[in-house]
Amino acid sequence: MIVKFDLFSTQLERNIKIHMYLPDDYISSQETYPVLYMFDGHNLFFDEDATFGRSWRMLNPLYELEKKIIVVGLECNHNGNERVSEYAPYPFYDPEFDETIEAKGKQTMDFIVDTLKPYIDLHFPTIPNRMNTWIAGSSCGGLMAIYALCMYSQYFSRVVALSPYVLPIHTSLFYTAKKSHIKMPSGLYVSWGAHEGSTGHEFISETKVLTELANILLKKGIHIQFDVQPYGEHCEASWEEITPQFLRYLIK
Question: How many CB atoms are closer than 10 A to CB 64?
Fold first, then answer.
């Protein structure tokens, strides 16, 4: 089942809508469940909620999953360029908008770990330890998931980053990855597609950056699973196709 509710973020000073998947029998079963936190929660389940009219359609893969889990998706800020700002761990110049993006990614992560996760653990049957707590996202949300791996590993043991938007801030991300103390065991599933950009050069650049990042993380002992999609695009339909794979990665 899907439930939706608003939760106020003191960190971002606004209400954030939560889109949450729970096993249909979660009340009667008396079981407790691992929790996957996800960015862009409005894009996960239903096309009518999705920004571009197409969601990840995650319900079927969740129903078919061998192990039941809870998914908690936080909706982004739709006001102007605020989504990018709230999903940016570091400031960067955006040529498309001809402006420097303010970095509010830390506030977003602090909301997740200090407000959202305690609320979920209090009101729903979760397994709250880090081994059963994961985080995932795509595009800017994928960048945030990697940032969470580097800076919030005391809360999350496995991370999924689909088509992470890393090129504009890769220098800062490399520095963070090198300097951070990441709790073990930790794992990263990272996927991107060969048809995400308008040119093959973008795919080559992204591959180079993600490979260099992976080398930094591997030296720290992090398990990494690459999943390059030969026909993958930067869109919800492509992320839907690999949803079963990354869900199985999380529960194995």
Answer: 9
Residues in the chain: 252
Task: Measure CA 189 to chain center.
Answer: 11
Report the 10 Å Cβ neighbour count for 41.
Answer: 24
Token pair for 157: 């043991």
- What is the per-residue pLDDT across 2-51, written as a single tens digit (0 to 9) for each? 999 999 999 999 999 999 999 999 999 999 999 999 999 999 999 999 99
Amino acid letter for position 64? E
State phi, psi for 73 to the nearest 5 degrees: -105, 130
Distance CA 189, CA 108 (A): 21
Q: 23 preceded by cis ω (within 30°)?
A: no
Cα 160 off chain centre by: 6
CA end-to-end distance (rounded Å), the chain: 23
CA atoms within 13 Å, Cβ hemisphere of 197: 13
Q: Strand 187-193 vs strand 2-9: parallel, antiparallel, or unpaired?
A: unpaired
The answer to whether 243 and 63 are in contact (CB under 8 A) is no
The answer to whether the Cα torsion of 208, 145, 21, 154 is positive or negative is positive
Residues 45-88: tens digit of each pLDDT: 999 999 999 999 999 999 999 999 999 999 999 998 999 999 99
- Which pairing describes strands 70-74 and 14-21: parallel, antiparallel, or unpaired? antiparallel
